[in-house]
Amino acid sequence: MYIATCIAIIELCLVSPIQSDNKVLNEKEIRHYKKIAVMQLAVYSIVIICTSILGCFTAARCICFGIILASFMQLPCIVTKRTSIR
Question: How crowded is residue 85: how many other Cβ atoms within 10 Å of its Cβ?
Answer without folding.
Answer: 6
